[in-house]
Design brief:
The chain has 186 residues and is α+β, with helices and mostly antiparallel strands. Helices cover 25% and strands 39% of the residues. β6 and β7 (103-111) form a beta hairpin.
């Protein structure tokens, strides 16, 4: 019988935000505030969605977390101080058909991607990572929509989703930060 570790998250929520300020760090802080997670000590973790983890609303998740608490999350953030530069931060999730198996979370932070393109990218990365754990190797040049149908047909990936934040760089050159995160609740 496998024991449950006290550090395996039982719930998770998604959040996102944008911040602008003349200093890079403060724009990041403002993005965290907009996302509702500035009052926590954030620890970035890698990409595994635990088996039987429940996705809850941001509001419900935040109610369970005390200010100053250590919070584990998969986070993407992107910053720029160039006027009109498009920043993007996205987190994608792929959940296995078998709820006893783990899923994958993928993050991307960069420039120039629209909301839709960033969302497709992070969902694709998460689904591809999950599929490869199931022994499915696909041509990376195949369109994601086509691969997604193959994953579903083989019963591997039940659901994908993403949270993405894009922002256009401030016209006056303020630092602009986009943040997206999957926040775990122990």
């Amino acid at each position: 019988m496998q024991m449950q570790s006290p550090f395996v998250p039982r719930q998770m929520f998604f959040t996102k935000g944008v911040g602008k300020h003349r200093h890079s760090l403060q724009s990041f802080e403002l993005a965290l505030r907009a996302a509702g997670i500035a009052e926590f000590n954030i620890v970035r973790v890698s990409s595994i969605y635990p088996p039987n983890c429940k996705i809850v609303s941001r509001q419900r998740g935040l109610k369970q977390m005390p200010p100053g608490g250590i919070v584990y999350c998969v986070m993407a953030d992107s910053r720029a101080d160039e006027p009109n530069r498009l920043v993007c931060a996205g987190v994608g999730l792929a959940i296995a058909a078998d709820k006893k198996k783990y899923g994958y979370i993928a993050e991307h932070h960069g420039f120039g991607l629209t909301h839709r393109k960033c969302s497709d990218l992070v969902e694709d990365m998460a689904a591809t990572m999950l599929a490869t754990t199931q022994g499915i190797e696909l041509d990376p040049d195949t369109a994601y929509d086509e691969r997604r149908e193959i994953y579903r047909a083989k019963g591997l990936v039940v659901r994908t989703r993403a949270v993405v934040q894009t922002a256009e760089g401030d016209k006056n050159g303020l630092w602009t930060t986009a943040v997206a995160a999957a926040v775990f609740i122990l």
